[in-house]
Batch of 4 targets.
Target 1
Amino acid sequence: MLTEFQKRKLSLRFYMADTSKDGIVELADFEQQGQKVAELRGIQPGSTEYEKIISAYRNIWSIYWEGADTDGDNKVTLDEYLKFADRVIAVKTDEKTKLEQVKALFDIIDVDGNGEIELKEYAIYLKAVGKSEEDAKIAFSKIDTNGDGKLSRDEFAKALYDYHASNDPQDPANWVFGSY
């Protein structure tokens, strides 16, 4: 059962994903996020790189969000999302599975494909969902737990998993999506 603290964090995540601000999350919200990332990176619509970004964001919808659509209307409400998150968190996941689950999101953020997320890459990701550069800097410094200025796949996977599962208000992973 989700705690009030988890519900608060996950609700913030939900409303960040709702780029249209209509109270539901759907594929179009992720396409808008992809468009914003492309714009922030200076990539023109119609280019191969642009289509790759949009495709990756569509993939995020299908991997992480579509499963929450319990009534099959291709829209996720906050209630559906919280119930889905509760079910997913209840399943204890090993480290290998955690890494596989975050692969698609990690690859979107890792713009240069070097296997690490740097601050400038993380800032683009958070700016696409409405966070400021300053918020991205703070968030990155919190989840870069070893302080080396980059996030490895392992580090990011742990932070993302703990963001959803942790009930500890002091957990650095609470900052994955910026201030909470």
Target 2
Amino acid sequence: MKKILIIALACVLGYSASSQTVLPDKREIDKSTFEGLYVTTKIEEKYLGKYWEDYLKQYGKVNSSRGGVYRVATANIPSVSSSSINLASQVTSKKGLSQVFIYLDLGNGSYVTQGTKGYAEAEAFLKKFAEDAILYDDARVAEEAMKDAEKNFSKLTRKGESLKKDIEKTEKELANLKKELEINEKDVATSQTDLETKKRSFDDAKAKIPTKQ
């Protein structure tokens, strides 16, 4: 229990202490090369992908495919562009770190990259997601720790109840044994008296036997 809470706290502090840096990059998605930007986090890829998909749903219909690819054909992100954006993204992981890469196609052959209009806004868009994802993951880690604690509590509680029943059963058995012992002691006393009586009878009968000349 204590170990789980320490791990959870370390994760929370570790995430909170790290600043979310967004950088430009080129990536290959579905055999096509895209130029955009990415952010790195310590969140596991499987959870990061879920957070990212939920985040994108605020801006349009999300289509996901193998390889951690998420697309929004007509994303509505007013801070980046007043027009619809063709968004392509990918969630990947390597050496304990996960990344979210996004490509923002503004139409007419223009897209968001370092030095272009909308880059600062796209950077803020991605950084906001990373910050939110950390909060979601902090809650997930805390919830898992809580559930582990609940399981441990339930296990110990069940064991305690079982021990109480065993004690009650043992106490009943002990009470029955004590009763049996009392009866046995009375029977032993009666049997002893009977034995002594039978012994005297035997001695008397033996004494009446004539001695041989």
Target 3
Amino acid sequence: MCPHDKRCLHAAMLAVFFGFFRCGELLEAPTTRGCLTFESGMLQVHLPRSKTDPSGEGTTVLIGPAVPPYCAVRAMLTYLTATASARPGSAVFILANGQRLNRSTFTAHVRTLLSTSGVANWQDYAGHSFRIGAATTAALAGVPDHQIRSAGRWRSDACLRYIRTPPSSARTLASKLSSVRSSP
């Protein structure tokens, strides 16, 4: 994979994960380079349209800085700087062959990376896996459900279906339950 496509995919994967995006919101919707701004060290992505925005007013997603190499803000700045000649009205993510990065190409690249990394069941992963992963990671980090719901722009408690409980949590559940002492 060429350096341009690596930068493009790196920025896209981090933005999709840390923005709790549905892939279509960022890759296929009318989201353009003009929808991206940086303010106070944060990446702001204005979604002109979203599944949870029936009124069509749009919504802005804020992504804060993180520790490199997992910083979506830095990855996006690096990618945008390398592609500075692109028009503000063009798609956010353009591959070296001039094609817009879409959901199927994104998924194909993710699966290739997982497969070559030896991840089991790599074929089960898709673009939505990033949204599931963001919700699960947030829950494991102790982020309250209401904040996960807000970050993912869920209008209901549907976000709870996205949170996967790892087997390691089940392993410690019995000891946690047995350590509770009730008072008479």
Target 4
Amino acid sequence: MLVFFITTLFMSSCYTFNGASIDYNKTKTIQIADFPLRTSYVWGPMASIFNNQLKDQYANHTKLIQVKRNGDLQISGEIVRYEQRNKSVSSEGYSAQTELSMTVNVRFTNNAKHDEDFERQFTATSTYETTQSLNAVQEELVTQMVKEITDQIFNATVANW
């Protein structure tokens, strides 16, 4: 019984049961800067959708306290690419599907373990039928891509995947 209690106490102080592996005795705060748009093509709401989702990801899946400066963990970066390209062509020679992609550059600092620091890019894509206009599907597709990218960032920073 004592071993079970000690194991449970250790597990609750170091890990959450959602994939995050954080030693909350050493890491208590996270600083997440707003990511500006640095793309040639811009859709206005994209930055706020991304920034809100990224902050919500850590608020909902960790016990870390979000701070404005001097966080134990620090995440910053920028949205560096947002573009569309033809993905497939119909038998008539016209574009049948269009691929929308989004890339985010991320700088991560772990002030407790600097060997985990990194700067890298995360990308997500979505495809839509060319019979639809981008305006009709943009919000849904951007929301999907943002979810995928914030999951990738979360996994790379605190889930050790």
